[in-house]
Design brief:
Blueprint: H1 2-16, E1 73-74, E2 81-82, H2 98-110, H3 115-124, H4 132-144, H5 146-157, E3 161-172, E4 180-189, E5 201-207, H6 213-218, E6 224-228, H7 235-238, E7 243-247, H8 249-262, H9 270-299, E8 316-320, E9 327-335, E10 339-344, E11 349-354, E12 358-360, H10 365-368, E13 395-399, E14 405-413, E15 417-422, E16 425-430, E17 434-436
Parallel strand pairs: 3-6, 6-7
Antiparallel strand pairs: 1-2, 3-4, 4-5, 8-9, 8-12, 9-10, 10-11, 13-14, 13-17, 14-15, 15-16
Helix pairs in contact: 8-9
Length: about 450
């Protein structure tokens, strides 16, 4: 009996596990057709348990009319008439209540439902609206919320660093180049990765074109760091030193790569070509790793090893891998003033890390009292493979996105990748993820 009760309880929990607890429940009890009398013998029935199952249902939103009644009261002695003032409306003499205006704005800007389609949805409920009516509602509601938008703008511009960008937006009909487009300027305040406790916010501004006068007007009262692309319209902001430019690294890498593609080998010398090839690959990983270390340093200072005196050779430590965000256990093999070299024994790979990127582990040899093993002499990290290191027909080893290694044959050498055939499938793999197989040729 106890086992059956536990089984029923488990089945009830499993049935309701996937449905949110905050949703209201409406209980429908289904009783046997015979009622409380046994059809077999005629005796009364008593409840010994119940099976409960839940179904997620939906009630569509519906319109309703709010009637505001203001009785007129007259005095029989002096003929004075008294009546309550009319309640205010979001739009003067408008028919839309606050709830309907909120639904129209949410549907248009949050759910991206065009107003003409919203009119079709309302028409199914018998509410016929010309398209000009909700269009006017949106304009009137925008004026109502202008003070709130201004408050958001003041909050954003009070930050020490603001990220700015712009994007085209189609204003009037037409397709392609025939469409009339405007510009949406976006200013973001979000320094949570730098341990800022202020609420993040986004401030939007619209303009009919992309002239530089618009960001200058938007940021005329801002003082601090502006992180943006190299658009020339931002340059007047940097002239007086009031706004400090923080250039976008991703945009810079694109330009460097464009230069590399435009240069031809043999016309500008091998040293320049090598510099352009090395710059995106050599600096991107270091910068992203440094950014990740800074975020972790500010978010949780306890993770940071602040002095090299806390470490010793052979000690096990952990470092935060910037690629997957997971802590990995490694062993200290060398220490310098600003960096520590560790050995990833699982992959037999040496890494040079800043002290801020590592933390001590409970399994360190100092805490267990074990004798620290003599550290192996670190070997220099392998050079990053390049296009010149491979040829068509060569058999190589490569890693897929899941870091699983495969062996295949190169069938094509591309600009930045190689096409490798393995097990009937063609892979496009970056040269950095390809390794040679010693003494194995096509």
């Amino acid at each position: 009996m106890e086992a059956a009760r536990k089984k029923r309880k488990a089945s009830q929990q499993a049935g309701s596990r996937g449905l949110p607890e905050h949703l209201p429940r409406r209980t429908v009890v289904h009783t046997p057709e015979s009622g409380c009398t046994c059809e077999a013998c005629g005796n009364g029935l008593r409840e010994i348990g119940q099976d409960v199952s839940e179904v997620l249902d939906y009630e569509p939103g519906s319109f309703h009319v709010v009637r505001h009644v203001r009785p007129k009261l007259a005095c029989g002695g002096c003929s004075t008439i008294v009546q309550a003032l009319a309640p205010s409306r979001p739009i003067a003499r408008g028919l839309a209540g606050a709830g309907l205006l909120a639904h129209v704005l949410t549907s248009k800007f949050a759910d991206h439902t065009p107003l003409y389609r919203l009119c079709q949805i309302y028409a199914r409920d018998g509410v016929e609206l010309p398209r000009s009516t909700p269009t006017d509602w949106v304009g009137q509601a925008a004026r109502l919320m202008a003070p709130l938008a201004d408050a958001v703008g003041r909050h954003v511009l009070r930050a020490a660093k603001v990220h700015g960008d712009d994007t085209p937006i189609r204003v009037l009909g037409g397709q392609g180049s025939k469409a009339s487009t405007g510009r949406l300027w976006v200013y973001v305040r979000d320094d949570r990765p730098s341990a800022d406790t202020a609420a993040p916010a986004v401030w939007f501004q619209y303009s009919a074109n992309r002239r530089g006068e618009h960001p200058v007007r938007h940021l005329k009262d801002f003082r601090g760091i502006l992180q943006a692309d190299a658009y020339a319209g931002y340059h007047p902001l940097y002239e007086d030193g009031r706004v400090i430019e923080a250039a976008c690294w991703s945009h810079a890498r694109r330009k460097v790569w464009d230069i590399r593609l435009s240069w031809r080998r043999g016309q500008n010398g091998p040293m320049r070509i090598k510099l352009i090839e090395d710059l995106p690959m050599a600096t991107s990983a270091e910068l992203y790793q440094l950014s990740w270390v800074i975020e972790q340093l500010l978010a949780d200072p306890r993770r940071v090893v602040q002095a090299r005196s806390q470490l010793h050779l052979g000690q096990q430590v952990q470092y935060l891998h910037w690629g997957d965000g997971k802590w990995r256990t490694v062993r200290v093999v060398s220490m310098k003033n600003d960096r520590v070299t560790v050995l990833d024994e699982a992959n037999n790979k040496h890494l040079s890390l800043p002290y801020a990127a590592i933390m001590t582990t409970e399994s360190a040899t100092a805490s267990t009292g074990e004798q620290a093993s003599a550290p192996r002499k670190p070997t220099p990290p392998p050079e990053i493979p390049r296009r010149e290191n491979f040829r068509v027909g060569q058999r190589v080893s490569f890693a897929d996105q899941g870091l699983q290694r495969h062996i295949g044959q190169i069938t094509r050498i591309n600009q930045r990748t190689a096409t490798i055939h393995c097990d009937g499938r063609a892979w496009r793999v970056g040269f950095a993820f390809i390794q040679h197989i010693t003494d194995v040729t096509a």
